[in-house]
Amino acid sequence: MSASRPFLSIVIPAYNEERRIGQTLLAVEKYLSESQYSAEVIVADGGSNDNTVRVVEGYAKHIDGLSVISVRGGFGKGFVVRNGMLAATGELRLFTDADNATPIEELEKLLPFARSPGRGDDDVVIASIALSESKIERPESGIRPLAGKLANLLIQMTVLPGIWDTQRGFKLFTAEAAERIFSLGRIDRWGFDIEVLALARRLGFSTREVPVRWIHDPDSKVTGSAYLNTLWDLARVRWWLSANAYDVRPVPAAPRLERLEPRRIEPAPTRSAASAMRPAPPLLESPSVGPVAASAYASEEPHTPGLRTEERLPRARRLRTRVQRSRRRHTF
Description:
This protein is α/β, with parallel strands linked by helices. Helix content is about 35%, strand content about 15%.
């Protein structure tokens, strides 16, 4: 790893987050100071109308590695995240929501699987609250959980089979995966998560889903219309993939490394040892030359099960045997 490149980049998209962003930044600073990772924190502001940028700049005076970039507004979360991830320089790059709904400490559950020296072999590691080990401390109310499950089933049927939670805003990428995936992105709003994971598969990057702890924020900005927009984005991603609009040929994912137990391999016997182990062939009575090893006939006619000994002999020898037997029967 380059001395100028941090190990970790944390990208936080923000839009009118002056009330919540401060607590999230303090939690990130506390986590990084305890973990001792070399890191940068990028707040990508999507054209906020409040004091979000000013608040972040104030915290940047006290938090090492914190910066804010202003992204042109009016395009949505996907556009902001894409610009933040492409501006990051870390070996591993995480984007997380400004409300810290998935606590930053949950990153410790994702890091062991990320492809890096001494760690795992996955290029994309995503947080999930749909697995049996996941923990939801403050669940959503109303029909939103049911709507989310139905939407996920549709996503699995059309684009991403096998991934049970595509929409969690807590995803970790290697530098290579982030640069290749986000440089191809087109979705600017809520459905960008689907596109990101679909491109990861199309490009051959391995993806792992990890259970995490999640706390629903009642002030979440996800509305009912966001579900409809996500379904529209899903249809667009499905069409673009089938039409190869991304100009990317499907690449099989790199296999994960499996730990195999060492297996004892017996050395092959030498020619002399193999000959000593092979039993000697039985002797047959030849009418003309006396006792002869059975292997002597092997090259002349193959062994056929169920035949008498004389029927296994070559044709000329069978005739001589029959003539000799006939002479003995007629001798007085």
